[in-house]
Amino acid sequence: MKTIDAAEVELLDYYLSKGFVSTKNHFVMLRDLTEPIPKFPQPNNITINQWEMSDEQGQQDYLKASAHAFEGNAWSLNHLQWMRDGPGWGTFTAFNEDYIVGSVMIWEINEQRSATENIFVHSDYRKKACITETLNFLKESGKTEATLGVFADKKKAILLYQSLGYRMLKVIVELGLD
């Protein structure tokens, strides 16, 4: 598998000439954090915490909740632990008592920008509060931009992110050998 910015047409031509085919498209979206961030009420039984997942049981619980939300597709424990070691890493995780119902992961891209990624919410708890809480934290931390990646076929997610002020930044084409 190879991912290429859609603007790199010569490189795309090269890979296509070698037998690669497009398997997926990823939209990279940008949120200007200098713009107002909408407020959404949290349900009474939900708390959103900045959570470090400091023990392996917490990490396993996170992966289980993520797999449930992503229909069985989740990172491995090794990948999650590797991500935790990155600069500016953290999560804003929504809990119903001890049960994880959603999360937004962040990591630093540069001084102005952080990623808001691996966003999931259990279908029974779909609200916008976890994402806006994360955006407010990044804004208060001095960031001016937040980005995320979303598969191009995830129409509901794209509409949600647009409603929160994210706009298209670029398209990444995923290529693989047929």
Automatic annotation (TrEMBL):
InterPro entries: Acyl_CoA_acyltransferase (IPR016181), GNAT_dom (IPR000182). PROSITE patterns: GNAT. Signal peptide: none annotated. Residues 28-178 form the N-acetyltransferase domain. GO terms for cellular component: ribosome. Keywords: Ribonucleoprotein, Ribosomal protein. It comes from the Bacteria. GO terms for molecular function: acyltransferase activity, transferring groups other than amino-acyl groups. The keyword Nucleotide-binding does not apply. Coiled coil: none annotated. This is Ribosomal protein S18 acetylase RimI-like enzyme. The lineage of its organism: Bacteria, Bacillati, Bacillota, Bacilli, Bacillales.
